[in-house]
Write a structure and sequence with these properties.
It comes from Streptomyces tanashiensis. This is Response regulator transcription factor. Keywords: DNA-binding, Phosphoprotein, Transcription, Transcription regulation. It is a single chain. With about 240 residues, this protein is of the alpha/beta class. The chain has two domains: about 120 residues, Rossmann fold (3-Layer(aba) Sandwich), CATH 3.40.50; about 90 residues, Winged helix-like DNA-binding domain superfamily/Winged helix DNA-binding domain (Arc Repressor Mutant, subunit A). It is built from eight helices and twelve strands. The strands form three sheets. Strands 2-1-3-4-5 form a five-stranded parallel sheet, sandwiched between helices. Strands 6-7-8-9 form a four-stranded antiparallel sheet, with helices on one face. A three-stranded antiparallel sheet has the order 10-12-11. The longest helix has 16 residues. It is globular, with a radius of gyration of 18 Å.
Length: about 240
């Protein structure tokens, strides 16, 4: 690891990209920011390395030879929680949305600024490390939902929910502010920690979260759409605003 200290000091990153130039540039910037970095040139090598030693975060190119980034992300997520930031081609919106739907926490479009990527990695890592707050927080409840911010566990009817890092943070944010309306811009700032970004990221995460906590995701009653504004979390299950 680089001797430089930085926002990522102590974190281990796996960079997966078949372009050696991109991989080296990304690795150099991450190491200067204080991260320990390992590289993989294809999906199978990435899964092997992640299996041998679980990384703290994966920077994953979407377009890989053989096993593509989407399948690598699926397999990584099935093996256990690990934050994933995808690298995608500019203009390939459908692929980016699919990446978020299979569990990626964020994405950066190529060509990208290495500094921006470092900032996004540091942002995701900070939230990942917030799994043990200094002061215990009470369990949040809404109907059959229970969220414990201290242990970062969420359950529905006693069954633990498999939530990504962002999904958990989004649900916690909603449950701590019942009845309040939130724009997608506000959610991007408060949950993602960014003043800019593709707002479809928020839309996709809300859709994924609804699929895990709603009785009928097509007619959500907990995370309701507020037309012209964004979303509102209603602790009581009501049917007044379909989405």
């Amino acid at each position: 690891m680089s001797e430089h200290s930085g926002p990522g000091a102590g974190g281990r990153i796996l960079v997966v990209d078949d372009d050696p130039t991109v991989a080296e540039v990304v690795t150099g910037y991450l190491e200067r920011a204080g991260f320990s970095v390992e590289q993989a040139a294809d999906g199978l090598d990435a899964l092997r390395r992640a299996g041998e030693r679980r990384p703290d975060l994966v920077v994953l190119d979407l377009m890989l030879p053989g096993l593509d980034g989407l399948e690598v992300c699926r397999r990584l997520r099935s093996a256990g929680p690990v934050p994933v930031i995808m690298l995608t081609a500019r203009g390939d919106e459908e692929q980016r949305i699919t990446g978020l739907e299979v569990g990626a926490d964020d994405y950066v479009t190529k060509p990208f600024s290495p500094r921006e990527l470092v900032l996004r990695v540091a942002s995701v890592m900070r939230r990942s490390r917030a799994s043990a707050p200094a002061a215990p927080r009470g369990v949040l409840r809404a109907g059959d939902l229970a969220v414990d911010p201290t242990t970062r566990r969420a359950t529905r009817s006693g069954t633990e929910l498999a939530l990504t890092l962002r999904e958990f943070d989004l649900l916690t944010y909603f449950m701590e502010r019942p009845g309040a309306a939130h724009s997608r811009e506000d959610l991007m700032r408060r949950v993602w920690g960014w003043d800019f970004g593709d707002l479809s990221t928020v839309t996709v995460h809300v859709r994924r979260l609804r699929a895990k906590i709603e009785d009928d995701p097509a007619r959500p009653s907990l995370i309701q759409t507020v037309w012209g504004v964004g979303y509102r979390f209603e602790p009581e299950r009501t049917e007044d605003i379909p989405a």
